[in-house]
């Protein structure tokens, strides 16, 4: 990794590393929590999921920092749990449980590695209009989850109560304040700071229980195959599609990093190694019980803003994350976060994902052809996913692929439309 030729002092490295950690940690808390809630997973297993997600993120960061043998991009990037996977993960866990999720994740990650090895040959399938449609749908599909959390969480005693909404809105207001009216570390850490403020308010209202934290172990090692692995055709197909789509999104993050930090395009070697590195860590996550990984866009923003690309900063970030992953008490603290706080803190993140899709759509060009592809694929994805029983009389594989995740539907339809609709003539 190159930098701006300024040697960082020891007193600068840790704060810069912590800045990256606080920017990525919310995802490693949110994704397992949403998945666990959807699958009815107990608190003990949620702790294992969070620890594994953090550990695999740390492994991925180190893979990229050193980049050996074509694995890793050797770029200044931070890796964390991928929000884009949530709709597909929750769809699979409801039918196949955690073992089905992790089995599909393992196969999907292996296919993702193949994408990294041969991405130039299949890149034509994912032009900007397809990726934009997918990203837009990811954001839209997460809105319902965030709002349910803001209301207290379904089946919760506080669901829909004024207490839940007060906490959620205070959290959301805090996030907006730090993100819009502050600068530097406060702006970058807006989501985390809003979550902390909401957490304090919730604790004052008696919504936080520390009993499990007191009883949790201080140190615990990973538990390979704790959830087991099982394989269903529908789940595997769904996960393969989202892993391929995520690889394309990762390419965008790597390109943004090299353009913003080094004023150049990413090389084929960097892109290929980056995709392979992320998918190797996701495959390890399937074994340990962690969620799939993706390149964190907020951390790309930090790199571009600070222009600090020293490898030591990212190595220290990974070590901090790794230590956190091995301490169950910290994971238990994360699990005491009330759902209204989590919803209020993350709805802006989900909103930004959708708006990123809109920006990408605009960048692809608002031509009649592109509007047809995006409009039809998004409409069918959102509509079908919200119409239970639409494929009731179809084969099980069709029901699993098209009756669950919006992301799978939008990706398939957008890809097919892009291939069959006539190209517009260049004027």
Automatic annotation (TrEMBL):
Keywords: Cell membrane, Membrane, Transmembrane, Transmembrane helix, Transport. InterPro entries: NCS2, Xan_ur_permease. It comes from the Bacteria. Its main location: membrane. It is found in: Cell membrane. The chain crosses the membrane at residues 21-41, 47-66, 73-93, 99-117, 124-144, 164-181, 188-208, 228-245, 312-331, 337-358, 370-391, 397-421. One of its GO terms (molecular function) is xanthine transmembrane transporter activity. PROSITE patterns: PROKAR_LIPOPROTEIN (PS51257), XANTH_URACIL_PERMASE (PS01116). One of its GO terms (cellular component) is plasma membrane. It is a multi-pass membrane protein. Belongs to the nucleobase:cation symporter-2 (NCS2) (TC 2.A.40) family. This is Xanthine/uracil/vitamin C permease. It comes from Lachnoclostridium phytofermentans (strain ATCC 700394 / DSM 18823 / ISDg).
């Amino acid at each position: 990794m190159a930098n701006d030729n300024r040697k960082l002092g020891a007193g600068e490295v840790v704060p810069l590393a912590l800045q990256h950690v606080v920017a990525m940690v919310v995802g490693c808390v949110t994704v397992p929590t949403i998945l666990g809630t959807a699958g009815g997973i107990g608190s003990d297993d949620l702790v294992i999921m969070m620890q594994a997600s953090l550990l695999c993120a740390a492994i991925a960061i180190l893979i990229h920092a050193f980049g050996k043998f074509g694995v890793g991009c050797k770029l200044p990037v931070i890796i964390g749990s991928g929000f884009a996977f949530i709709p597909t993960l929750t769809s699979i866990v409801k039918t196949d449980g955690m073992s089905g999720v992790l089995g599909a994740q393992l196969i999907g990650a292996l296919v993702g590695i193949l994408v990294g090895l041969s991405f130039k040959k299949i890149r034509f399938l994912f032009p900007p209009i397809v990726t934009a449609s997918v990203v837009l749908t990811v954001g839209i599909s997460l809105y319902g989850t965030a709002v349910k959390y803001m209301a207290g969480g379904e089946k919760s005693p506080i669901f829909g109560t004024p207490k839940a909404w007060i906490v959620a809105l205070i959290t959301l207001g805090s996030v907006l304040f730090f993100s819009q009216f502050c600068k530097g570390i406060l702006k970058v850490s807006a989501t985390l700071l809003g979550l902390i403020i909401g957490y304090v308010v919730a604790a004052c209202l008696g919504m936080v229980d520390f009993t499990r934290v007191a009883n949790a172990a201080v140190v615990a090692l990973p538990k390979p195959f704790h959830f087991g692995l099982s394989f269903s055709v529908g789940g595997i197909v769904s996960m393969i599609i989202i892993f391929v789509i995520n690889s394309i999104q990762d390419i965008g993050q790597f390109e943004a990093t090299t353009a913003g930090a080094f004023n150049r395009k990413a090389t084929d070697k960097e892109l290929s190694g980056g995709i392979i590195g992320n998918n190797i860590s996701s495959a390890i996550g399937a074994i340990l019980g962690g969620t799939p990984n993706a390149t964190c866009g907020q951390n790309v923003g930090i790199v571009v803003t600070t222009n600090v690309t020293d490898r030591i900063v990212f190595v220290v970030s990974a070590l901090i994350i790794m230590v956190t992953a091995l301490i169950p008490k910290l994971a238990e603290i994360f699990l005491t976060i009330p759902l209204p706080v989590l919803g209020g803190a993350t709805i802006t993140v989900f909103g930004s994902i959708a708006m990123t899709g809109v920006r990408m759509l605009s960048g692809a060009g608002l031509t009649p052809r592109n509007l047809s592809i995006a409009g039809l694929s998004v409409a069918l994805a959102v509509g079908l996913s919200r119409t239970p029983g639409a494929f009731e009389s179809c084969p099980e594989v069709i029901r699993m692929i098209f009756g669950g995740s919006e992301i799978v539907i939008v990706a398939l339809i957008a890809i097919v439309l892009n291939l069959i609709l006539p190209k517009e003539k260049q004027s």
